Structure formats: structure tokens, C-alpha cells
Amino acid sequence: MVKSLYFKIVLILLIFIIAVMCAVGAILMNGVTSFYIGDFTTQMRECFADDGILMMELKQASAAESYAEQMKQILSSYGSILGVDKYRNYYVLNLDGEMLTGSDIELGASLPITPNILSAINDSSTTISMGGMDYADWAVRMKRGNAGADCIIYIKDSLEEMRQLNQMLFTIILQAMFIGIFIAVLLSFFLAKAISSPLQSLTYDTQLVASGEFTHEIEVRSADEIGVLADNFNYMKERLRATLEEVDGEREKLDIILSCMRDAVLAFTADGHILHFNNSAIELFGDSLRTGDLSIEKSFEILDIPLTIEGNSVRLTSPDASAEATKDGFIFRDRTCGARVYDVSFAVIRYVAGKRQSSGCVIIIHDVTSRYELDESRREFVSNVSHELKTPLTSIKAYTETILSDPEMDAETRDYFLGIVLSESDRMHNIVSDLLVLSRLDNKRTNWTIESFDLKQSIRRLCEVMRGQVNEHRHRITFGCQRDLPPITADKQRIEQVILNILSNSIKYTPDGGQIDIKLSHLSKKFVRIEIADNGIGIPEEDIDHLFERFYRVEKSRTQDAGGTGLGLAIAKELVEAHGGRIAVKSSLGEGTLVVIDLPVECQLEKNGKR
Ligand code: ADP
């Protein structure tokens, strides 16, 4: 209340009014006193002028025996000119200052000797003499010459009239002051209200803005300074709202980017507490992130990163070949954590918390498992290709050298050796052709010849083609086909290649005298199913998932003899999937294998197109 604007305005106005009234009062009262005294002096000077009638008459009377009585009569007759009343009296004094006669005998009996009376006694000039605010007087010595001792005419005013006037003025001023104070309080209320209501609304609005509420608009009612202030505040609020919206938008964008990021992002304070994390980080570190249990040291431990934090600086605890220094931190490449491989970047960050500049660190964990696996499989592939080509090349080289080193070699042996060279060359040719097929499929550069054909007839023809091999191994082969199968649209040659690969596997991996059954059926309106089953050696369960990998063979020793390269199933899978189909293998070791191929009736490949 004491600090309120209203109180201050009231106080200022009160002080102002009191001060003004005091000044006015003082000036007025002083003016009244000066006027009264001045008037008294002028009156006395004029009346008692040496050449004035009053003085003439008084001089004449002074020569008489009963001069005192005569003088009294003269003064009494001049009473109105001298202003004689109950507050102003005249006296005739002897030179001892004692009253001989006067207008008020009672008062005159106890007249004090004033400076003026003293001057008259001493026969010096008379001026007005003031006894503070008690009286004003005038004394004139009257010379009597030979008639007797001189006397003194003495006029004394008790100033009571002036005091009464001043008192009245004081009362008027006091009344005026109270009325003024009342008006001031009333005025200051309206003034304070006029000033403080826009200020109060400004204050209320600033509180709203501080609490994040920007919709309330201050009404600008006037064009004065407060109006300009309110106007400026509205503008400032609008700018602030726009800026905050922009910042919010940016933060939201950043949040969305962070939450959509496949990389795990974690931020820690300098003392190691978690500051921020995204969804990928939760997937990696689990609920310990939400509960705040994950410290920076713990995350370093999980990711096997040899870093420590001392104050705001990050230190490598031991030299690590995979640690690359960056501008703000380090990158650790190919860190294995569980079954995954990560590149872990570490950087120092600075941010504002409260009003303080703080620092911390951010960890970005980039999952490079697929790249790592790709690199691995590439390395493995190159090694496989080299290995697969090296074996036949070594044979070719050895047999060719043997033939060349012995010109006398008999024709039968040489033909035998040349036969081996030829079969190894064929093997190499097959590997290279298979690799070319795969490479074209990988690069989507295969030329497809899409046509509509009868799959049943194709399988029958392939059975005939393989008849020689089947008979050689004394296998029995059956082919069962559902009725009313529609022709399918596909690359006939390549689908036949798939079936041939699977069929030749069944022939190869089934001991002589085995049973091979082929079935062709409707899977749905849109798909047909080919099933090729044998009762051969089967495939161990743990190998089944890898069968479609390039160069994968169950047991190198058992398949090498059969002349396999480990590319047949990989090619089959690529070709079937390129047509929009599926291929799967079911097998039990020692019992046999079933290969199931589902093909769409209408494949999505473009005729003569590349894919
Ligand atoms: P390959 O040219 O070596 O036959 P594939 O890719 O066609 O290569 O086959 C991969 C491996 O799967 C073969 O090496 C073989 O061990 C196994 N396999 C494929 N078909 C059969 C089958 N019908 N019976 C047993 N094992 C099979």
C-alpha cells in the first residue's frame, strides 16, 4: 500500500497543497501585518505633521493651564482621523512617561515606557515602534515653552484588530486547506486510477507473458506516454511470441529429427547425468535411460570406450587405434556391442542452463552393422571367388605342365589329362557364367524375355533333359500336376534354369536309387507352386538359413565331389524374387529335402525390360 502509485500521488498532492497553503498563509498574514503597520505609520505621519491643523491646535492648547484636558478634547475630536477605537488609544504623558489624561484611563495607568516614549522624553525624533506583535505606537513631544514642562502625545495601537484579522485569515486558509486536501484526495484517486490502470494492465500482461501466455492484448486507450508504452509492449510481445514460436518450431523440428534418427543420440551434463536422449538410444540402452540410471561412465563401459571425463575435458585413458580425434571430441570406429557394430562419435557441447553457461557432452552412436556385414561379405566373396577359381586353375596348370614336360606321353594318358583340363575349364566357365548372372541381377541389368508359357510342359521337358543323369543314378522321378493350371507369364528360360538347378541338386545330393517327386499346383488365383522333393542326404538345420548365400555349401567335401559351386540356390532365389515369387527349403538330415517355389501367374517384370 505504502509503495503503491496511488499512495504516492496522494502524498505528493497533500504535501503540495499543504506547502502552497502554508506559503499563501504566510504571505497573506505578512501582507496584512505590513499593510496594518504601514497604514498606522502613514496615518500618524499625516496627522502629526508639523504644519498640520492637528499639530497647530495641539500647540495652541499646550500653552493653556489645563493643556492636558484641552489636548484630550482636540485628540478626541480627531478620533476618527486618528483611528481611535477600543484597540487604539491616545494619551497625554508628562516627561516621566506617566499618563496625565487619555482615551482609556485604565490602560493608560499602566503604560510601559516604550522606545518611542523614551525618544520623546529625550526629545529626539519619533518613529513607529513595534513591540513584536503586541503593539504599535507613536509619540510626539509637545513643547510648552514658558507655560511649563513639555508633555508627550502618545498613540498606542494594541494590534488586536490586526491579530483578529490574521486569525480569521488563518481560519480561512485552514478551511481552504482542508477543502483542498479533500479535493486533492479525490483528484489523486482519479489521477492515480488514470495513470495506474494502464500500468496495472501492463503489469498483469507482463505476468501473463512471463508465464508464457501471449494471446492477451493490452488496450491502448490514449496517445500519451503510457499509451505509447502499452503500444510498444504489444509490439514487443508480438515479436517475442513470433521469436518463441520460431524457437519452439526449431526445437520441435530438432526433436522430430532426433527421434526419427536411426543413430542413438545421448547428451550428458558435465557431471555425467543424462540430459537428452532419443528413441534409438532407448532401444540401445533400454529403460535405464528413462529412469536416469545411465551415467556417462556406464555408457562408456557398455560401448567399451576408453574415455574419462575430468571436469569439462575429455581424456583418452589408453591409446586406442580406432580413436580418431575430431574438432570437438573423438570418433571410435567399429565398436562391437552385443551382435551389432557401431561408430561412436563423442563431442563436447556448451549450453545455457538457468542463466549459467554449462558444458556437457553428446554421444552419437551410428549402427554400422550392415555396412560392416557388407564389407565382410564382400571380403568373403572375393576370397570365395579366388578360392573357387584357384582350384580348377591349379589343376589345369598342373596337367598342362605335365603334358608339356612329357612329349612322349602316350595318347591315352594325354587324352585323359586333356579331359581333366577340359572339365576344369568347364567348371571355371560355369562359375564365371553364374557370377555374371548374379552380377547382372545385382546391377539390374538382366535382359528379361517375358512370355506366356505352360509351366507343366516346361517341367516335363526338363525331366526329359535330365533323364540321362536320373537314369545314371538309378533314381525314380515322378511329376504330378493339378488340372486346369493356367499358363504363367515369366522369363521362361530363367524359370527353367531355376527348376533345373533345384532338380540337379536333388539328383546330385540323393544317393543312387533315390526318389524324386515334382508337383505343380495352384496356390491361389495369383500364384502357382512347384515342389521338388527328394529322399536324399538332407541338410543340417543350422545350414538351411545360409543355403541362399553365395558360395555357401553345406560341407565342402561332400559337395565338391558333386561338382557344386554354391551359387545355384543363390541364383535361383534372385531369379524367383525378381519375378515376384518366393523360394524356401525344408530338409531333415538323412531324410531328404523339399524345395518349394511360389511363382506369380502374372509376373511384374516388363517384357524385354531390364531389372
Ligand atoms: P551347389 O552348386 O554347390 O549345388 P547350391 O547353391 O545349388 O550349390 O546348393 C548349396 C548347397 O546346398 C549345396 O552345396 C548342398 O550342400 C546343399 N543342397 C542343395 N540342394 C540339396 C539337396 N536337394 N539335398 C541336400 N543338400 C542340398
Explain what this protein looks like in three dimensions.
The chain has helices at residues 5-47, 53-62, 67-77, 79-82, 105-108, 115-121, 160-210, 225-260, 279-285, 296-302, 369-405, 411-442, 455-465, 467-472, 492-508, 541-544, 556-560, 568-578; strands spanning 88-93, 99-102, 129-130, 136-142, 151-157, 264-269, 274-277, 307-310, 313-316, 323-325, 329-337, 340-353, 356-367, 450-453, 476-481, 488-491, 515-522, 527-534, 582-588, 592-600. Helices cover 50% and strands 21% of the residues. The strands form five sheets. A six-stranded antiparallel sheet has the order 7-6-13-12-11-10. With 611 residues, the chain is α+β, with helices and mostly antiparallel strands.
Short description:
The chain contains 18 helices and 20 strands. The chain is an alpha+beta fold and 611 residues long.
Average pLDDT number: 86
Please work out how many helical segments DSSP would assign: 18
Percent range of helical residues:
40-55%
Detail the poorly predicted runs.
Answer: none
Q: Would you count the extended β strands for me?
A: 20
Characterize the biggest β-sheet. Answer: 6 strands, antiparallel
Beta-strand percent range: 15-25%
> What's the gyration radius in Å?
65 Å
Structure ligands: adenosine-5'-diphosphate
Shape: rod-shaped
Strand order of the biggest β-sheet: 7-6-13-12-11-10
Please report the distance between the alpha carbons of the first and last residues. 86 Å
